[in-house]
Structures are given as structure tokens and as C-alpha cells.
Specification:
Blueprint (H helix, E strand, L loop, with lengths): L2 H12 L8 H11 L11 H11 L12 H4 L45 H10 L8 H10 L4 H7 L6 H12 L8 H6 L8 H12 L16 E3 L20 H4 L7 E3 L21 H11 L7 H12 L6 H12 L2
Helix pairs in contact: 3-8, 5-8, 10-13, 12-13
Length: about 325
Amino acid sequence: MRLDLARVVLILLLACAPGRLAAEDSVLSHRVAIVPVPSPPQDDARKIALGQKLFSDPILSRDKNVSCASCHDLDGFGADTAATDPALSPDLRLNTPTVFNVSLAFRLGWRGDQRTLLEQAVKAILNPAIMGLDEATLSERLMDSAAYRPLFAAIYGGTPSIVQVGDALQAFERQLVTPNSRFDRYLAGDSGAITPTELEGYRRFQEYGCIACHQGRDVGGNLYQRFGIFGDPNASQPSSRAALGRYDITHDEADRGVFRVPSLRNVAETAPYFHDGSVATLDGAIQKMSGFQLGRELDSADVALIADFLRTLTARPPILEQKDAAGRAMH
């Protein structure tokens, strides 16, 4: 699902609506193209609580100095303010994607090299460049922990394993969906949830073709696409494995420079942007995408309008809002 599909989607979206979309056309098309984020799934509350505890605990790393939250800052919309993760190999340093709404993506990571949250969690713990903890030591640490041993025994029984850790982490991460953004409230019928300026930004987001790749529940995250349809965005930079995209995994020439399309949910809060963290601002990201993906240069007014629309996609997971509210009540 790469360029051909994206062009087909774009043609279908635009064929019947040349020029600026009318308000009624916009209402019709957004109900097909973007849908609200679903509520968090029902799951074992004990698993969710265990996963939440593990997510922020450096006990899962070799030197006990890094946790999942070290890179996926839950107060920072599940992302990292660094351009790339310095722990990774110098030629494969990638920007840390947000963990918010990650359960809605069809593949995980910029290169789509993981299919499930469980797989991603286990690989991150074992990866020497990330957590670097072996299975035996992990199990031993959790068995020796007065805090964790009874929790694992009650939920899973027996000796804690890396699969059980991954299962608890994925139970928590599935709760990190962000329903109730202003745009989702608009989709649900609240016409006052967004301003006329923001609605105009959404119309231009559709009209210029952004929506060909950024649609669905996650406004992205559901297909692969080449970064640089109109030109090479890496031409002025030293070559690196990171720029190869999926080619580094599949060695299929058709996958050179192909990445999983990122979600635009909470995009206004998760700078810097792109797989290499090379753009610091939302306006800059919109300008770069319009040139290399759409083959057009947007003026500053268009960029500002689209940015206004994208800010309506901001929301926090209910599980974290509940924690925030509890913290405020204690002060």
C-alpha cells in the first residue's frame, strides 16, 4: 500500500469536488475520511495497573537507568523532544514516535518492523541499544521484588516472564488512546467544537491532498508511503540507514525511502518531526510535506490554516486525565 493507493485515494476524494470544498461537501467527506478515536478498550484492571507501573520503572533496563517513559514522556504527549534517540546506532538514529494512539496503527515504528504492542515491548527490552536486559535477569529481578512478585503471581501465576511483562505493558498502552479531541467532538455533531478558521484549515487539508495518506481513526498510521514523491528530502544530508526506510528491512528496491505514515493525532504537541527529527516546527513540517509529498508550495496563510486544523486533534488519554485530576485533588 504505497504511492499507487495514495494517488487512487486522492483522486477519489477530489474528483467530484474541484476547487475549494463547500461546507456541505466537507461534512460529507470527513465522515468517510476521518473518524473519531474509539474509547479505551475494556481489559483486566490489574494488568493495566501493572503495565502502567512497569512503563515508568527503570527495573526493565540493564543498568536500571532507563524506562519506557524515558523516551515516551507521558506528560509530553507520549513522545520525546530530542530529534533522535542517541542510544541507537549512529547511522540508524530515529525520532521517537508518540505512544499515544499507538494501538490504532497497523504497524509499529517508522519502518513498520513490529506488528503488535507485545512484540514491540519485548524487542525494546531485549535490544542492547534500548533497554538491553536479558530474560533471565528480568525474571530474577521481578521475583526478588516485594512490589512486583505478588502482582505477577496474582495475575499470571508462576515466575514472571518477559512475555508477561510485554502483555501488561500492552494492556496499559492500549489505554493511551485520545478520544474527545475538539475535532472528534465536531465529527460527533458539535458544530461549535471548532472555529470557522479551523474548519477552513480542514477543508484545505482535504483539498490539497494531505488526506490521501492521513485519514482513518489515527489520521495516519494505516499505510506505507515513500517520503519524497516530488524530490529527495535527504539529498542535502549524508546518507544513512535511517533514510532507507523499509528497504533496510526488506531489501526490496521498491521500499527504499518508504516509511509507515505517522499519525497526526496530537501532532501539534510532538515536535520535532519526521523520522529523523529534522524539522522543529509544525509550520515547517507542513511546508516540507507540501513540497516533497504534494509537489506544491503553500503560502503562509494556507500553512497557518492547516496548522490551526491540526491543533484540533489534540487530546490526552482518559487514564492520564484521571491521574492528573487525582493529583490536583491532593494539593
